[in-house]
Backbone:
């Protein structure tokens, strides 16, 4: 999804297609004219990644124009950063150095950095594998429900068991110990993040995408208001409906944070509004654009052009910082699901009412349904992919269980 969203952003702004490399192919990049995908089994890890990148570098070593590497997953961002010195001899690598990336990618150390720079985050306790293996009674200092998530999001990609989720909401001590045991018994070795659960449904979430230029100046920030998430266990936390939103206070917080730590490239933040103290609490930073980040391009802030202006045209330094979405009259709703699923399952609130108004005015868009890149095969595949959400929401969306969509 992320790959196609970036490819579409490049195509809308400049035409042509992009080259993509991956360990496997998924539906969004099938039957497309704007993504030339090469699959290398095992490409998501070294040594396959760097061996193949050395081969690819030979193709581009005499290229007339800069060639930009854009990671569309946490693992690839980490691999580019890890090999940044070597890869930068051939490619533009808009990523922070590896030490900073490791500190930001790990939620445990991210919260320490956030604390140092005044970025609000949920109250947090660390659970270690040693606590579990020593049969220590792990203290849960918060009232249930509590949130539990892996500190190491890259290692978590390789952990599999029945009931695995990106993050867990836990309602009792028994459930807590059951989940912790499954996590560590199935090979996870890093710490877990135990957090005070911030009350409220999906509509209290916010997502922010930013671009920081090579001089460590923030040049674009776009805030989104997710109003529905995928309820499928393995996809919990993936947004499926986002409204653009403006909040200068949040923009100021994020700009100060990114510039203080000397960030560079794309960044993606998840946060949640806490009504108890009227603040937004930051959960994490992703050192890449997010899976649903096409909502930024959809609303007029093309993600691709910032990297091109920065590294190819060398004009971005003179541009003012963009604080997106000031004009609500130009808003468009980004959807990753059929509209009938959204209407059935989105919570009844002011944001949902506005979203439904945009739907009635045909002011919506998706990442993958692109008129300039459509064939019968692609249209059939995407419709099948979208229709699968009907079954997934009927099965997993607990608050509406039994209210099936036809």
Residues:
């Amino acid at each position: 999804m992320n790959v196609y969203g970036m490819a579409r952003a490049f195509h809308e702004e400049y035409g042509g297609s992009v080259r993509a490399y991956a360990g496997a192919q998924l539906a969004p990049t099938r039957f497309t004219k704007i993504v030339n995908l090469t699959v290398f089994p095992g490409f998501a890890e070294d040594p396959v990644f760097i061996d193949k990148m050395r081969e690819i570098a030979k193709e581009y070593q005499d290229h007339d124009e800069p060639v930009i590497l854009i990671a569309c997953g946490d693992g690839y961002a980490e691999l580019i950063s890890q090999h940044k010195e070597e890869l930068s001899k051939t490619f533009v690598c808009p990523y922070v150095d590896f030490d900073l990336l490791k500190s930001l990618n790990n939620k445990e150390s991210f919260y320490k950095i956030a604390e140092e720079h005044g970025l609000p985050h949920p109250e947090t306790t660390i659970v270690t594998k040693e606590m579990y293996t020593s049969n220590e009674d792990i203290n849960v200092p918060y009232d249930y429900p509590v949130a539990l998530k892996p500190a190491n999001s890259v290692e978590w990609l390789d952990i599999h068991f029945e009931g695995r989720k990106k993050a867990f909401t836990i309602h009792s001590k028994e459930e807590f110990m059951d989940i912790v045991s499954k996590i560590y018994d199935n090979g996870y070795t890093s710490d877990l993040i135990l957090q005070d659960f911030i009350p409220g449904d999906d509509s209290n979430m916010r997502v922010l995408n930013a671009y920081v230029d090579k001089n460590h100046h923030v040049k674009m920030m776009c805030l989104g208001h997710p109003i529905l998430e995928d309820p499928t266990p393995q996809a919990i936390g993936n947004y499926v409906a986002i409204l653009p939103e403006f909040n200068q206070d949040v923009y100021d917080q994020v700009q100060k944070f990114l510039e203080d730590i000397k960030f560079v490239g794309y960044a993606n933040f998840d946060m949640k509004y806490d009504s108890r103290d009227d603040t937004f609490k930051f959960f994490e930073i992703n050192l890449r654009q997010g899976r649903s980040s096409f909502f930024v391009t959809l609303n007029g802030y093309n993600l691709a052009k910032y990297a091109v202006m920065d590294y190819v045209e060398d004009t971005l330094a003179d541009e003012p910082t963009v604080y997106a979405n000031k004009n609500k009259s130009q808003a468009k709703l980004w959807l990753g699901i059929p509209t009938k699923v959204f209407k059935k399952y989105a919570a009844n609130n002011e944001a949902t009412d506005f979203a439904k108004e945009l739907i009635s005015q045909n002011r919506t868009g998706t990442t993958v349904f692109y008129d300039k890149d459509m064939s019968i095969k692609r249209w059939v595949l995407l419709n099948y992919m979208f229709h699968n959400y009907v079954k997934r929401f009927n099965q997993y969306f607990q608050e509406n269980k039994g209210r099936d969509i036809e």
The chain has three domains: 2-103, 123-196, 202-400. Residues 400-406 have pLDDT under 50 and may be disordered. DSSP finds 15 helices and 14 strands in the chain. The longest helix spans residues 376-396.
